[in-house]
Design goal:
Distance between the termini: 40 Å
Strand order of the largest sheet: 4-5-3-6
Largest sheet: 4 strands, antiparallel
Helix content: 25-40%
Strand content: 25-35%
Oligomer: single chain
CATH superfamily: Transposase IS200-like
CATH class: Alpha Beta
């Protein structure tokens, strides 16, 4: 008896698409100053989770330190990653600066919480070489 195949919960289905898109995101505080205390990453995660929900995305993992945070986001193909990042950084910056005014000194960060740059890496699925090999092995129509 063969084992029953179970669908991958990370593979989402839409009307015209089947997808599993994940991105590893890293946001660094402005000037890489260690402004986050022990409470701030927890609140940051809550805010970013809500932003992801608004985009029909999922925040799969979150962790951070005093000067940066890491996110693993599962997002649909209709979402432009740059737009999601813009909202994640913008909303979290406003909320954290408003809720932790004593901790986040505007003179240090000049009215901005996050650095304007960020890291985004695609992740999940097969290694790039395996995908290249698969495409190369496809039969061309005669």
């Amino acid at each position: 008896m063969s084992p029953r195949w179970e669908p991958d919960p990370d593979v989402r289905r839409g009307r015209t698409v089947v997808h599993t898109l994940h991105a590893h995101l890293v946001f660094v505080t402005r000037y890489r100053r260690g402004v986050m205390n022990d409470e701030m990453p927890t609140r940051c995660e809550e805010v970013m989770r809500k932003v992801c929900e608004d985009f029909e995305a999922g925040l799969k993992e979150f962790n951070g330190e005093a000067d940066h945070v890491h996110l693993l986001v599962h997002y649909p193909p209709k979402v432009a990653l740059a737009n999601l990042v813009n909202s994640l950084k913008g909303v979290s910056s406003r909320r954290l600066r408003a809720e932790f005014t004593g901790r986040v000194n505007r003179a240090i960060v000049h009215g901005r919480f996050w650095s304007p740059s960020y890291f985004a890496g695609s992740c999940g699925g097969a290694p790039l070489q395996a995908v290249k090999d698969h495409i190369a092995q496809q039969k061309r129509p005669d």
